[in-house]
Structure formats: structure tokens, C-alpha cells
Write a structure and sequence with these properties.
The chain is of the alpha+beta class. Helices cover 36% and strands 31% of the residues. It has a single domain, classed as Nuclear Transport Factor 2, Chain: A (Roll).
Length: 173
């Protein structure tokens, strides 16, 4: 009898939470620290440190659709951005969900935005939704293997939900 994808994920999550080498709480904290490091490197305008938290073969898709491949390219491209129109920006973000796909991988959904100055945007002003796929590398370090950034369009959402109410996500009803 074959298992469905949700059953497979549930089995992997169960194995993860009972694994002897770590716990879900420990890994959740480690992943949160990883994302804090990524945000801090951005805030310092440090492309090398920013790229260092991605895997060597990572993929990174910006909200305008640019695709970067690999930690080196991600770091190099971001340094160019930090030295120009992203100079002095910082990241505000909130983790919405961390979902483990076994002991060594997780999908993380965040809301975030860039900002300048000392006034951190409130959670309701975070206009972008990010998806991170994070993996535990040999040696135990968590790194970002894939990143997707999407700019929310609230007006378009409202129109869509009004025209087709069944398209509204359950948590937005």
C-alpha cells in the first residue's frame, strides 16, 4: 500500500521529533538563528556573510523574478545591491511557520520587508512573503537551500476573493 504525501511528511516529522541527535525545539531555534544571521548580514550590508548562510547550490528568486544560483553568486549580487540602491536598508521579518520535512530539511514561511532608519515596520506592513527551504549540512549547520520572495498585492487579493470567495485561504476567512 502506498502512502500519500501528507502521510509521508507526517512519518518524517515523527521520526524527526524522536531522533536521538536533536529535538524539534532545538532545530526550530537553530533555524530561527539562521534567519536572524541572514537578516543581520543584510543590515550590515555584508554580501559575503549574507551568501555564507546559503548552500553552495542554493537557488534564490527575488520578488521581481531574478534567479541567482549558489552561495557565491547570491553573496556577490547582494554586495552589489548593498553598495547601491539597497545601501542602508535592513530587514524586518516574522516567521509564520516552520514545517519539518524530516530530520534534515524544513520549509519556512516568513513575512518581511526592507526598511531604512530606526522605525521597524509593524507586522501588518510586511508586504512580502518568503519561502525558505533550509537543510542541515554535514557537520550540523543549517543553511538556506532555496529562497522565494513574493510581493503581496492586497488589492488584487481582495478582488480575487470577492469574485471567487472559495479562493480565500482558510486562515483569512
Amino acid at each position: 500500500m502506498s502512502a500519500t504525501m501528507p502521510e509521508i511528511i507526517d512519518t518524517l516529522n515523527a521520526k524527526h521529533t524522536t531522533a536521538t541527535h536533536t529535538t524539534a525545539a532545538t532545530d526550530t531555534a537553530a533555524i530561527a538563528r539562521l534567519l536572524q544571521r541572514v537578516d543581520a548580514a543584510w543590515g550590515r550590508g555584508d554580501g559575503a556573510a549574507y551568501g555564507a548562510d546559503f548552500t553552495a547550490d542554493a537557488t534564490y528568486i527575488t520578488y521581481v523574478g531574478t534567479l541567482y544560483r549558489g552561495a557565491d553568486e547570491i553573496g556577490r549580487a547582494h554586495q552589489a545591491l548593498f553598495d547601491s540602491f539597497l545601501k542602508g536598508t535592513r530587514i524586518a521579518s516574522v516567521i509564520e511557520q516552520i514545517r519539518f520535512l524530516g530530520a534534515d530539511a524544513a520549509v519556512v514561511v516568513t513575512r518581511g520587508n526592507t526598511y531604512k532608519g530606526d522605525k521597524v515596520p509593524s507586522a501588518d506592513k510586511l508586504a512580502k512573503i518568503q519561502t525558505y527551504t533550509v537543510v542541515r549540512e554535514p557537520g550540523g549547520a543549517w543553511r538556506v537551500a532555496a529562497f522565494q520572495n513574493t510581493l503581496r498585492k492586497p488589492l488584487m487579493e481582495k478582488v480575487s476573493f470577492r469574485m471567487q470567495p472559495n479562493s480565500r485561504p482558510a486562515d483569512a476567512r
